[in-house]
Amino acid sequence: RCMAVLDPIKVTLTNYEEAMAEGWPKTYDIQNSPTDPSLGSHTLSLEGPILYIDASDFRLEDHSTYYGLAPNKAVGLKYHGGNMICDKVIKEGEKVVALECHLDISGDRPKPKTYISWVPLEGCVHAEVRVYNDLFSVAEPTDLWEEELNPTSEIVYKDAKLDASVREVVQGGEAVDRWTSNLALQFERIGYFVVDYESHGYDPTTNTGLLVFNRTVSLKEEVFKKELTPAELAAIEARREQSKKDKANKEARMKLDPLSLFKEGEEYKGKYSKYNEETGVPTHAANGEPLSKSAMKKLEKDRKKFLNQKAKWEKANK
Fold it and tell me: Which of 4-8, 97-101, 131-135, 182-186 has the lowest mean pLDDT?
């Protein structure tokens, strides 16, 4: 496995020399399998102030539901251990092309909410990466299947960056076959990828030639990298507000006197005119008509259900 950025943003660490002068390590040992040490490890080195992060890990505007990098916000660098804080954003038109950041390696630095992938400039492998998604935009295509094709079923990243450890496993002159499985790698936080037969002429010694990777399996974590639209953010806020409202309504309901349930409970208000003095169960409808035995029996079940709910709520909120 390796770290990869598919849509790279160049990052300059403005205090790199100072951080290294304080003795922060430049090389980091990474297990090839997070669960099986017997598969060995590889190293990743930060030998200079420039690295790449993925565009999906950066936003110009921060949000409470977003844990990635944003201006004046800190994130952790995976395996590095320090925090990276964005100080300056460089754009070409509307596109963010570079960032200036600084490292926080102080002993009392806050723990970041997330750790993002990164690829150092030195020795990085340039590759074309093809990400395949669902072919259709609906679960079950209809007769209008041509209109239901997913426009993002294939996304091609022409300038992806992979960390230098890839050069240790992609051998120069290795035959890449069209009909058999070729070398497969896990790109951390993205998925599993296989070398495509259209790769040609790659020389790991000089780091030249074309490498093409196709995604075969996605990772669950990729879901959390999706940039939310304003509508999705609004929906999240609406659900959060509704949850608060539901919680407040439940608390108010649980505080009701059982004898007042059918008088003050929202779903019962205004429906009844007379009640059993001992249980509070309604005996007459709002128009004065007596309730049937079956109707009162059902309301008695509602009363007992409420008593059980109230007892559980009071126990949980002692």
Answer: 182-186
Q: In this model, does residue 72 exceed pLDDT 80?
A: yes
- Greatest mean pLDDT among 17-26, 142-151, 281-290 lies in 281-290
The mean of the pLDDT values for the chain is: 88
Q: Is the dihedral of CA 234, 240, 246, 252 positive or negative?
A: negative
What amino acid is encoded at 42 in this protein? H
What phi and psi values does residue 215 have, to the nearest 5 degrees?
-75, 130
User: 222 falls in which pLDDT band (50, 70, 90)?
Assistant: very low
Tell me the per-residue pLDDT of 187-198, one tens digit each, with 9 for 90 and over. Answer: 998 999 998 888
- The answer to whether 151 and 134 have CB atoms below 8 angstroms apart is no
Nearest to 75 by CA among 37, 124, 109, 126: 109
* Residue 282 burial (C-beta neighbours within 10 Å; 0-12, 13-18, 19+): buried
Greatest Cα pair distance in the chain: 93
Cβ contact 240:64 at 8 Å: no
From the list 26, 3, 7, the residue with the least C-alpha distance to 118 is 3
